[in-house]
Write a structure and sequence with these properties.
Ammonium transporter fold; globular; 464 residues; disordered N terminus; mainly alpha; 70% helix
Length: 464
């Protein structure tokens, strides 16, 4: 028995010793595992935060769409030139083409020098802080916001896209004083008005911290910034430059409606970049702006033709082309926030009201707005801006919030329209006066009768 107990005691001692040795040997290998587990637990909140707030990314599809949209808007430059050129007399055809092309080019250069910086270069109630003069700090790696959290586009394409808006807005104005203004006066006026009217309005409506943006004003693609803004400058110019010689007494019929139709069609195609491109991404919202650009324009053409048939007994090609532009202008502020049925309603309203704008209202105003910039872009822009406040309501197919109030939104839209009208008119008046003092606004009577193609540019559209 004693030998048995001794053997058991010896075996137990050996077993306990082996376990202790095994634990001592394993301890150094277990320590890193415990440390790794501790680090993983500590890093878990950071990983969760990163997952909840992903790093901004640039989507190649969005970038490609914005490049296409910018090129589409560029197509509006020859579109506008041909639309305007066909409406003037043949002796002034090239002068209008020249004004549109050179004004756009001038503003494009100014945009990258200081325009972008003061419109979108930082925070501000009325104007940005100008921190991106000469595009300072903007590289191929710089990113601009879209309407989706965490989704960005290269800032350089945003700069280029907005450049086309600024250039076209200033080019729109030349239709109001066509056929009698000095070319150099147009350029000087454009520089002043762009600097002190376009840039502040663009920032207030679209820029970070802008007054109207903060108020909740809706302007998806430029109803106030582009169309009302330019129309008021044009109307003031029509008054200050004065009426064309023979206006109301001599025939001043469009010399080539085929070119006007071609120009209107190019504008319609380019406007898809204007409207759908303003969504800044290639997604469902883009398709909404896209289809609205079709339906509203088509409705406005039909409305204008019907209005002409009822008042004049026949519809005209000029009316159909003008109706297309009226519909495009009307849907611009609303294209991304109303449904297709709302777009049709806006197009119908714009077609009928702009027809009145170039007939009844034009007679009431008494200004020689040569190519009806205010009658189409002013009336259409105001119509679209106000009806945006109606048809953005979810109950009418719009994309507004559930608590959307039509009455409240109409007040905000009205404030935006009023600010744009007053601001643009005041700046335009001062700009014209400065141009008149420095250069003189109007060509001589002899030059006007001969035509601006020859007297201002030494060329003729169709030979002499």
């Amino acid at each position: 028995m004693k030998k048995l107990l001794a053997s058991l005691t010896l075996g137990l001692s050996l077993l306990l010793g082996g376990i202790a040795t095994a634990q001592t040997t394993a301890a150094p290998d277990a320590a890193p595992a415990v440390a790794a587990t501790t680090e993983a637990v500590a890093a878990a909140p950071e990983a969760a935060a990163a997952a909840a707030d992903p790093a901004p990314t640039v989507n190649k599809g969005d970038t490609a769409w914005m490049m296409v949209s910018t090129m589409l808007v560029m197509l509006m430059v020859p579109g506008l030139a041909l639309f305007y050129g066909g409406l003037v007399r043949s002796k002034n055809m090239l002068s209008v083409l020249m004004q549109v092309l050179v004004v756009f080019s001038l503003i494009g250069v100014l945009w990258v020098i200081y325009g972008y910086s003061f419109a979108f270069g930082g925070e501000g109630l009325i104007i940005a802080d100008g921190s991106k003069m000469f595009l300072a700090g903007i590289t191929t790696d710089s990113m601009a916001d879209t309407f989706s959290a965490g989704v960005k586009i290269p800032e350089l394409i945003f700069v280029a896209f907005q450049l086309t808006f600024a250039g076209l807005t200033c080019a729109l104005i030349v239709g109001s004083f066509a056929e009698r203004i000095k070319f150099s006066a147009v350029l000087l006026f454009s520089v002043i008005w762009f600097t002190f009217s376009y840039l502040p309005i663009a920032h207030m409506v679209w820029g970070s911290g802008g007054y109207l943006l903060a108020k909740g004003a809706l302007d998806f693609a430029g109803g106030t910034v582009v169309h009302i803004n330019a129309a008021m400058a044009g109307l003031v110019g029509a008054y200050l430059v004065g009426k064309r010689i023979g206006y109301g007494k001599e025939s001043m019929a469009p010399h080539n409606l085929a070119l006007t139709m071609l120009g209107a069609s190019m504008l319609w195609v380019g406007w898809f970049g204007f409207n759908a491109g303003s969504n800044l991404e290639a997604n469902g919202g883009t398709t909404l702006a896209f289809i609205n650009t079709i339906t509203a324009t088509a409705a406005a053409i039909l409305a204008w033709c019907l209005g002409e048939a009822l008042t004049k007994g026949k519809a005209s090609m000029l009316g159909a082309a003008s109706g297309a532009v009226a519909g495009l202008v009307g849907i611009t502020p609303a294209c991304g926030v109303v449904g297709p049925m709302g777009a049709i309603a806006i197009g119908l309203a714009a077609g009928f009201l702009c027809l009145w704008g170039v007939t009844g209202l034009k007679k009431m105003l008494g200004a020689d707005d040569s190519l009806d910039v205010f009658g189409v872009h002013g009336v259409g822009g105001i119509t679209g801006a106000m009806l945006t406040g109606v048809f953005a309501a979810p109950s009418l197919g719009g994309t507004g919030a559930e608590d959307f109030s039509i009455a409240s939104q109409l007040l905000i839209q009205g404030e935006g329209v009023l600010i744009t009208i007053v601001w643009s008119a005041v700046v335009a008046f001062i700009a014209y006066k400065i141009a008149d003092m420095v250069i003189g606004l109007r060509v001589s009577e002899e030059n006007e009768r001969e035509g601006l193609d020859i007297t201002s540019h030494g060329e003729s559209a169709y030979g002499r």
